[in-house]
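seq as requested:
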Amino acid sequence: MFFVLIMPDLGNALICLFLIFVIIFSSGIKPIAAFLIILASVSAYISLPLILNILPQGFLKHNYQALRLLVFLRPWDYTRGASLQLVHSFYAVAHGGLFGVGLGNSIEKMGYLPEANTDFIMAILVEELGTISLAIIIGILLILIGRIFYLAFQVNDNYQRLVLYGIGSYFFVQALVNLGGIIGSLPMTGVTFPFISYGGSSALISSTAIGIVF
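struct tokens:
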């Protein structure tokens, strides 16, 4: 996780941290310890805006990772710079509404939302096909994740169980971080949406993970 962090790749480092927690919890950690770790994580998320307001603004604006946190806190203050993608993601989601404007009819992907086919592909999907279609895709992904966890409950080998827990959690947190980023609920981290975002390495790793499950 340290080597991923210093690349720098904060998004995937956080995913690695989440997967480490999942494996630790699944290995038989005491419930009170699990509760305290979850409580600390939730408290850190809630207190993040307060912490950012205390830090010097100059440091936040000149540090790449810290600037992402500042954009998360006040996206409308940086609409022509660091939060350009996020703000146009908001526009895309709002424009799509429940049923979308039709396949291929997105306005935001025509140069307004940079790199719309990668991290923010789901914003374009909502704009063209609507929130209903997003809900269907999330439902299909949850069925896949649920099936992986179901298999984990069925196996008797502890190693195989932990591998399945890790893969199911990997898909879950990847989708969560991606969707949280496009609607501004989580800081932007450059994490792809499984099987949909453009990116050969992402598709390869996701497909390999499914192969391991099989």
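The radius of gyration is 19 Å.
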